[in-house]
Amino acid sequence: MDSAMTIILTGFDLLLSATLLWLAWQLLRSTDIFKAIIFFICFGLLMAIAWVRMHAPDVALAEAAIGAGLTGPLFLAALRKMERKQKKERRFDPEEKRDNPDKRWQVRSREASPLMWIVAALTLCFAGLLIRTVWIIPRPLPGLAQQTAAHLGASGVDNAVTAVLLNFRGYDTMLEVMVLLLGAITIWSITHAPFPPRLPDTSPVQKSAVRLLLPLICLTGGYLVWQGAYQTGGAFQGGAVLSAALVLLLISDFLWLPDMHSLPLRMGMVLGPLVFLSMAVLGIITENALLRFPPEQAGAFLLFLEAACAISIGLSLAAFFAGGRPASDLREKPYQTDQPDTEKEGS
Amino acid sequence: MTIPEIIGLVSIAVALPFFLSGTVGMLRFPDIFTRLHALTKADNVGLGFLILGLCLQANDWFIVIKLVLIWVLVLIASSASCHLVARRALMKGIRPWTAQ
Amino acid sequence: MTNMLYSFTGLILFVFGLFALISCPHPLRKILGGNVMSTGIFLFLVATSYRTDTASIDPVPQAMVLTGIVVSVSITAVALVLATRLQQSANRAMNRREKKNEGGAAEG
Asked: Do B83 and A205 touch (CB under 8 A)?
């Protein structure tokens, strides 16, 4: 029974690896970039299964929500913007078809064919070196599993991954939340965006489905954050689910959304880094070390931290999707005072 | 093995052909509307049987509630997204396939 | 066995992504290649720490990968906005050049 199980699992692993490699090859070589993006979404979903297979359910949730659920729509939105820009303007190549936007780029790649062969050979050499390196790594590798398990009691949570993320290696997570904020700031300083992109026709089915699902999605996000203390879940997964709710809101063309102030959005995006920083400073004052929590109250501290991070992660990811500073921003129209104040908070 | 567990296993086994037929339909049907039809209809029934089987094997009411919630949410999401894909296809001018 | 298999899958994914990053001219394809590369690295990191028994699995690489996924999304988002801007300005430059060519032809 046990050996049969092993054979089945090995077969599954082989099948999964082969499918992943095939999908990666397809998405990098297919001629239509839209198809490539769809392949990428499938690739992310299969990666989530691979993470589950490797006993990493936290990573699987994050991959399914962020890697497949959010990156795919990001690519699709960018593709739509690029295509629309191309359609409006005049083109060099009159034979270029609209449904195949990367034809222009392909022609150039065919010209550089000898160079391509050199690149392929170099990449193959590099791959050989990498495979050799992996082959000579001594196994089994030493890990930090025992140390983590030994200090888990002092971290305030029962989930080892959450403990590592927020307590043992809090620096990483703090810097990561800062990276998210930095990304949002960069995007906002590069472009403006009509903050929901105006769609000509939104189906009523979509609207009512979004209305039905939105509170449930927010609830699920909060539940994931809460669950992160003792099970699979945490700030990233909860934040990603929250951002999915916001993305749905953005593409459903609700009328009150463009009138919304951007101030709550900005404050929510800053909330996570701010709370993290104040926790770090608090650690310096009370425990004489950055980001160290007193073990008795660590659970409460971490939950507070996670909630703040989840809010700012969700808002930042949604801002990535919107792809620019909101057009209804205060600074865009400083002289329009006759507008009625239709500010609505929350969603 | 208790009787509910056996019924659960049978229910999961019943679910698998539905998924298989949905997938075959998606790969082999001639146009986007028939493919959507195969995918959503067969997979929703398959998912229902799967959830039923898992519910019978669960030993906690909380898990049963979560599983049923997953089923309802997938039903809503899949019917809405199916509608959206079909609507977009109709707007782009894709004619439904007919056996001439 | 399993960790070797997934390690090599991760490596090959990395190499695929690298090749696409160098060879594909379309910016979106380059960003896709970068994403595949990062996924390969993540897969390699977690696969090397994989053990068959659940108790002795190292949570540190998993936490690092979780951080990495979020960072790679931010990088992807910024890169996509930059690519869109690049195309916009390239189109504008192309239009200007075409207009100048037409003007020159009309004069000459």
From this structure: yes
